[in-house]
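Dear support,

We are seeing what looks like truncated structure output for some complexes. This example has two components. We would appreciate it if you could run it in full and send us the complete token output so we can diff it against ours.
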Amino acid sequence: MDIKAYMNDLGQRASMASRALARSTTNARNNALLEIANQIEQSASELKAENSKDLAAGKANGLSDAMLDRLALTDNGIATMAEGIRQIAALPDPIGEITDLKYRPSGIQVGYMRVPLGVIGIIYESRPNVTADAAALCLKSGNAAILRGGSEAAHSNQAIAKTIKAGLEKAGLPADAVMVVETTDRAAVGELVRMDKYVDVIVPRGGKGLIARIIEEARVPVIKHLHGVCHVYIDDKADVEKAVKVAFNAKTQRYGTCNTMETLLVAASMADKVLPELNKLYQKEGVELRGCDKTRAILKDINAATDEDWDEEYLAPILSIRVVDGIEQAIDHIHDHSSAHTESIITEDIVNARRFLTEVNSSSVMVNASTRFADGFEYGLGAEIGISTDKIHARGPVGLEGLTSRKFIVIGDGHIRT
Amino acid sequence: MDIKAYMNDLGQRASMASRALARSTTNARNNALLEIANQIEQSASELKAENSKDLAAGKANGLSDAMLDRLALTDNGIATMAEGIRQIAALPDPIGEITDLKYRPSGIQVGYMRVPLGVIGIIYESRPNVTADAAALCLKSGNAAILRGGSEAAHSNQAIAKTIKAGLEKAGLPADAVMVVETTDRAAVGELVRMDKYVDVIVPRGGKGLIARIIEEARVPVIKHLHGVCHVYIDDKADVEKAVKVAFNAKTQRYGTCNTMETLLVAASMADKVLPELNKLYQKEGVELRGCDKTRAILKDINAATDEDWDEEYLAPILSIRVVDGIEQAIDHIHDHSSAHTESIITEDIVNARRFLTEVNSSSVMVNASTRFADGFEYGLGAEIGISTDKIHARGPVGLEGLTSRKFIVIGDGHIRT
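Here is the complete output from our reference environment:
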């Protein structure tokens, strides 16, 4: 198989389809989503049959139970997938919105129109429900999609692709609007991320290795999410009860998520007041604490944090703790070690709160709230394609708007420039 | 000289300075700009002395008169440079603006805060005034800048850099906030565009060759402007007088700009009505016309357009003309040949106007207005760092807002996720 020619054909067809999508009506796109949801429900037994092939291969290849669990399509999972698409269909249409249309001294009116990006390439691993979810977000925002899932879910992804294409055709939109790459050859990823003629943006959803490789190879712009080394800083002026509550929640509400706190910073004046209580709560949950010297002067039984700990995304019941002089040192620590994902200050002081909000340069900066809130649904975006730790285009949780851009529109009545 | 170490040092210092800028007040940044403007005026004779070295070297190296003209710093040019910086100082501060702060069902407030990107790398050619102009735009938007001008303007750029540093210091901001690369070694560009640890975005200002090289090498995101193959389409339903007026202005108001029309598309039903009149006007200005067969059936004396003409950015008094069936074919032609910069439809028909606005996927799409309006000042942005033909982040004329991004801010009162 000539991978380059194959991917080129996919790109060209997706690009053609994206033009049809750009001129499709809100209703046409919503109907397509509802048809796809129906097709998924009606194809439940076929989806499970194809999924079982992936599961069998996964078992034979020694995938871990956790991996197999993420790979499995259950009746419940299929219903959730269909329901997710219906929820996306119900969101307001971001496309075509005209804003800020104003008269200029020359007499022309100038404003913005929100438009699709064109063709979005999504590269992801294991979970087959991403196929349906990502396709739905792209369609809702008027974009064509080229989806490249993991080889371990190849049968499941192709089965879902079939339901998507059937739904698109039923709604009168081109089936090429969603292309699921059929080859599991890794060279296909290399082609996809360099096809800047046809692909407008790449959204990788996966582990660090995948993303690092894409960044290295990509010619197409990438909306990327590197990792989450999130901090909570308990300020001199913190309320002890709120501090304990938020620091406990930010670590223990879920361990494996990118918005989980990995390092707790505590102002020296507060360390005595919050650390013993937090220690008790964390011990009860089995969280391993690793502290700086000042922390260990208070919590004598915990391990010492190494230099590496401050940069670590544990994704596990482990927490590093550092006692700092105050807000200045806290912000410096965050600047040096944070992944610019999400940081929160606990304080009753408006000066420190404003300073933290201004000076901490992360995609989400919080006051008196758990880092676990950094999420497209919690923020009211209605949907989320990922969380961006980039600075340009989309930053933080990326909803439908991150899959669009704004072009200028100008309305005149025979106006010329003089 | 170890270019890698040198650039790394520049990057590190600019990155440190960007943190000071991010917490600087609106007044501090404006004062710095006013001080820089003063310094430039006070250093006029020194600037001219250094500039004369570049001019002498340029003459010795056989630069064209046009190139030397762009390189020259006159008294008038220096005054304009200072005045331009004062105008930038007078613009509203984009930084720190909080928008859309709304309560969510969980009780947290979620909104956006506009923030600087961090460190901006600007790579440009010949005109030394870009040094002052780009530095001012970056400072106004709270960003540090690393500027890499052309070797032909090396003395002038360093002299301007001195005035900028003096102004920054007078205003109490770090002199490292604007770093002008001192080496003329081209390897410095290669380092700059790959220093993603320190540089947040690259803005190239120069010809196709420069930009192509940067795209090929860059690891840092690039806000780029490729070229301008702009179209005016005279629709079936156009007003003849407006059509002639706009098509004449879009080509002849200036030839060398990226928003100049390069191809005129005319609906078949209008060709007889507009082409003879336009031909007369263009002939008077010495514009060479190159037409399709249908155009040449009406304008018998003009040359035939070749396939290459439809993709050409002439930047010269040359215009290609194609007669099309109607709006459908016009949009198809634009899709195939436009550089997605600026296109305009001339029509009295609201259905065709809306269709053109929706379906033409360019950074500026116009109705009954000259493509020459595609410009940051005409659009009311107050300033312009360039025009982006990218789809993500900033599209079309890029003002201060294009040098910023929005982070999420979350305000709670001890809120936790459950």
